[in-house]
Amino acid sequence: MVNVRNVRGGTGLDPISGEVDEILDSVFANARRTSEEFFDSFDKNPQPIVLAEWLATRAWREIDYVFLLNEEIHRYGLGFERKHITLLAKQAFQEAEHYELVSNAVESLGGTAPTSVPPDSQRWSEFLWECLDRHPLAAVAAWNASETSATGSLEPTFLAGERHGFDEVVRVHRKIEIDEKFHVGLGRQVLGRYAKTDDDRNEILRAMRGMHDIAMSMFTPESATRLLTS
Ligand SMILES: [Fe+2]
Ligand SMILES: [Fe+2]
Questions:
Q1: pLDDT tens-digit readout, 170-186
Q2: Residue 67 Cα to ligand 2 middle (Å)
């Protein structure tokens, strides 16, 4: 499991940390299992274009995070310590790098990088933007669950890239893995530092539960293997 839970950032999550950890463990395990199943099937007929489609959805999420993080900073950043503005901006910069790199990997496999929200990411995107409108910590909580989920798919992805000699895919995912540890840890730190009231904690749990349900329905063996059969 991702080892980013012991970050120093305040005690604001303490009353709900059991449920938060349960949600995060659940989305991580689901994404890992689904990715492994996808690549088990992919191995039987490893067409680059299928992997390109699998990665194109991720590319969209990377650029949507750039938009979301910058809007989070714009709307709420001055309520945070300055160092957290800097760290969120660093995350936004890295998400832009991920969009560039994953898009390059998609194109190296013969696919097309997305420039608008793909249908299977629509609900995910809408939920995050709704969270951003509701509460300063809600979008942070939602993307923390989503990024934890994405982390579960990283290792199966670069192992498959290695097996099939997709060097660009391996290189990109090694970098993303390092950055995602920082992103998931930063989210946890911000939530723990700024959650003060039960209302804050309820908003955090609402956002995480909502993202959990979206991840569970988006990240299914059926949705993954649909790519292999279409
Ligand atoms: Fe990313
Ligand atoms: Fe990230």
A1: 999 999 999 999 999 99
A2: 12
**What are the tokens at 109?**
């496999």
Kind and range of the H or E run holding 154: helix 138-164
Classify the C-alpha dihedral 203-199-205-74 as positive or negative. Answer: positive
d(CA 60, CA 211): 17
Count of other CB atoms within 10 angstroms of residue 153: 24
198 CA distance to ligand 1 middle (Å): 30
The one-letter amino acid at 28 = F
DSSP 165: T
From ligand 1's centre to the CA of 60, what distance in Å? 10
The protein residues having their C-beta less than 5 angstroms from ligand 1 (an ion) are 62, 95, 98
> Which CATH code, of 3.30.70.20, 3.10.450.700, 1.20.910.10, 3.40.50.720, is assigned to 14-229?
1.20.910.10
In 3D space, the residue among 128, 91, 125, 121 whose CA is nearest the CA of residue 206 turns out to be 128
Rounded Cα distance, 82 and 10, in Å: 16
Minimal CA–CA distance to 38: which of 155, 124, 130, 142?
A: 155
Buried b / exposed e along 113-131 (16+ C-beta atoms within 10 A): bbeebeeebeebbebbeeb
What's the pLDDT tens digit per position in 127-174?
A: 999 999 999 999 999 999 999 999 999 999 989 999 999 998 999 999
> Among residues 95, 176, 178, 189, which one has the least CA distance to residue 140?
189
